[in-house]
Amino acid sequence: MVSLLALSLLAVPLASAQAISSKRGLCYVATKDSSQDDKIWTESGSDLTWYYNYGASPTSDIGNTELTFVPMQWGAPPTSTDMTFYNTVEGLIKSGTKIPYALGFNEPDGCANGGSCVDAETAASTWIREIEPLKKNYKVSLGAPAVTGSPAGFTWLQNFFTACNGGCTPDFIPVHWYGNFEGLASHIGQVNATYPNMTMWVTEYGYPEMSLKDTQDFYNQSASYMDRLSYVTHYSYFGAFRSSVSNVGPNAAMLTQKGELTDIGAWYLGEKAEGNKPKGGAAQVAKFAGWAMVVVGVMFWLV
Ligand SMILES: *[C@@H]1O[C@H](CO)[C@@H](O)[C@H](O)[C@H]1NC(C)=O
Ligand SMILES: *[C@@H]1O[C@H](CO)[C@@H](O)[C@H](O)[C@H]1NC(C)=O
Ligand SMILES: *[C@@H]1O[C@H](CO)[C@@H](O)[C@H](O)[C@H]1NC(C)=O
């Protein structure tokens, strides 16, 4: 079923990946090299139009650029009356920051290493208290919880909407995918079939631990595919860090171990590739919010 769907999607002719795309954004992951590397993402004229950093507040080096910041309520707040996320976003809006969009929950269905592991009921009550009012009061367009690409993700979302009892009205649905292009296309199709009334943002995706050629082929195919799908309005490739600290394999990174753009990094920004080859570092233990589910997802999908 899944592979048939993928095949029918693949029959759509492929366009050039280098077409300028305003859908592209930055999934910002803080690393020890970030302060040196941040300027590469903000050069004017790049294809990037937006970014998120898994948090409610902008990243200082990027905050004052043309990139639109998209705040995220990463996980469950400490108490059931907490208003930190709402208040932070409201503060940004009141001080003049444009906040057209907000995202709710990073991989809440993921409970090993780095998923935010939020049960559907807690997520629903948090959403109704802190996220839904952003739309009502400030016309912020809301992204549904970004579940993992596993079947458990669909179940979690279904439970979330049941627990919301009509009180959660996301405008678009974020998607995460780690695996090959056919899998990505099939997953996008399955999400669209399940939630046909929401546009889609692919907020983490990649083909981890593959050869450079396979990774580049995946990148080009998926970028041109998402550029052509009108209901995918935004996407952010994983990831924006050096190959030496990548936990999705060196070839997936957009920066080399020295902080230069790899070919994928250059194509993603709409620049000319220089042939900079990514090299790996010592085996990394996932350290950053949002990372570790990648590893779990990869094991899930590639075995
Ligand atoms: C990927 O796309 C870029 C830009 O269109 C092109 O220059 C490059 O040759 C492509 N690479 C692969 C591996 O298809
Ligand atoms: C996405 O969903 C819409 C609405 O059901 C449907 O018309 C469209 O064919 C779907 N697209 C794909 C690629 O599945
Ligand atoms: C999608 O929107 C249409 C038109 O508003 C509505 O009839 C339909 O029930 C909606 N589908 C879902 C799954 O919400």
TrEMBL record:
SUPFAM superfamilies named in the record: (Trans)glycosidases
Keywords annotated in UniProt: Signal
Q: Which GO terms describe its cellular component?
A: fungal-type cell wall
Listed Gene3D superfamilies: Glycosidases
Q: Name one GO biological process term.
A: fungal-type cell wall polysaccharide metabolic process
List residues of the Asl1-like glycosyl hydrolase catalytic domain: 25-268
Family matches, as InterPro entries: ASL1 (IPR053183), Asl1_glyco_hydro_catalytic (IPR024655), GH (IPR017853)
In the UniProt record, the signal sequence range is 1-17
UniProt protein name: Asl1-like glycosyl hydrolase catalytic domain-containing protein
In which organism is this protein found? Answer: Recurvomyces mirabilis
